[in-house]
Design a protein that fits this description.
The chain has about 260 residues and is mainly α. Helix content is about 55%, strand content about 5%. A two-stranded antiparallel sheet has the order 1-2. The protein binds zinc ion. The site of zinc ion has 3 residues, from helix 2.
Length: about 260
C-alpha cells in the first residue's frame, strides 16, 4: 500500500473508486496489543500517509481539476479489544473511526489559508478578517444544517427517527473545536451505504433500509453555493428518494425473488 497508493493518485483517469486497504494497524494490534509502542508507531505512520494523500488530492481538487468532485473516506472495517482481538460483538470490536473529507472544500480551505498568509505578509488585517469570516462560515453552515435537522422540531423529518438504524443513535453532532468541520458522535453502519450511494450518484443497493446520514451530508453534500439553505435543499431532495426506496423495499422486498 505504501508503495502503490500515492502513485495511483497521480493517475486519476484510470479509476473511479480507489480502495486502499492497509493491514498494518490490524497486524500491530494482533501481534503486540492495542496499547503497545508498535501500535503507536503504526498509527502515527498512518497519520502521515493520510496527510500525504490529503495534500495530493486537495492540490488537484480546484476548479476543473480531476478531484474537484472527489471525496476521501478513511475508516476502519472493525475495532479491536485491548488485547488486539476482534470478531465479537463488544463496542471495542464493532466500533470504528470514520474521516470524511470533501476535496473541493478542503482545496478551498487551503487556498483561503494560503491567501491569508499572503495577506498577513502584506500586513492587511482587514483582508485577514474577511478570510477568517469566510472559513468560519463554512463551518457554521454544516453545523447549522445539522442543528436544523436535530434540534428544530418543525424541520425534523419523520425518517430521521424511524427504523432500526436510529435506535442506538447517540446525542446529536457537535461542532469540533479544532480544525475539523463537524464531529459526529456516531453513524450507524446501515446508513453509510445509502449515503455513499447517493453521493456517488449510483443506486442504493437492493435491500438496504438505511437512511441518509445528515452528518455525512453536512460535510460531503452539495450546497449549490447557497450555504445551509442549499445543504438543506439537496438533503431534502435526496431524503425523499431515500424514503421512496425504503418504502418500496418494505412493500415488496419480502416477496421479491
Ligand atoms: Zn484482524
Amino acid at each position: 500500500m505504501l508503495q502503490h497508493l500515492l502513485p495511483a493518485l497521480e493517475r486519476p483517469r484510470e479509476w473511479d473508486v480507489l480502495i486502499g486497504h492497509y493491514l498494518g494497524v490490524d497486524h500491530a494490534g494482533h501481534t503486540y496489543g492495542v496499547a503497545s509502542q508498535q501500535m503507536t508507531d503504526k498509527v502515527m505512520q498512518m497519520d502521515e500517509q493520510v496527510a500525504h494523500v490529503l495534500h495530493k488530492l486537495a492540490a488537484a481538487a480546484g476548479p476543473g481539476g480531476p478531484y474537484e468532485r472527489g471525496m476521501l473516506l478513511v475508516m476502519g472495517d472493525h475495532g479491536q479489544t485491548m488485547g488486539g482481538d476482534h470478531g465479537g460483538g463488544s463496542a471495542h470490536e464493532t466500533d470504528s473511526v470514520l474521516l470524511a473529507v470533501s476535496l473541493q472544500k478542503l482545496h478551498a480551505a487551503l487556498q483561503r489559508r494560503q491567501q491569508r498568509r499572503e495577506k498577513e505578509e502584506h500586513g492587511s488585517q482587514q483582508q485577514e478578517d474577511v478570510q477568517h469570516q469566510s472559513r468560519e462560515q463554512h463551518r457554521s453552515d454544516a453545523t447549522a444544517f445539522l442543528q436544523q435537522l436535530h434540534t428544530t422540531p418543525g424541520r425534523r423529518s419523520p425518517a430521521i427517527n424511524a427504523g432500526n438504524s436510529s435506535s442506538s443513535r447517540q446525542p446529536g453532532p457537535v461542532p469540533h473545536p479544532a480544525r475539523q468541520l463537524v464531529c459526529a458522535q456516531s453513524i450507524p453502519q446501515i446508513d453509510l451505504t445509502p449515503t455513499l450511494a447517493v453521493l456517488l450518484g449510483v443506486a442504493v443497493p437492493y435491500g438496504n433500509v438505511g437512511r441518509l446520514a445528515p452528518e455525512l451530508w453536512a460535510v460531503l453534500g452539495s450546497d449549490d453555493g447557497k450555504g445551509v439553505d442549499g445543504l438543506l435543499a439537496s438533503y431534502q431532495g435526496a431524503l425523499w428518494d431515500n424514503v421512496q426506496q425504503v418504502r418500496l423495499q418494505m412493500m415488496y422486498g419480502k416477496n421479491a425473488t
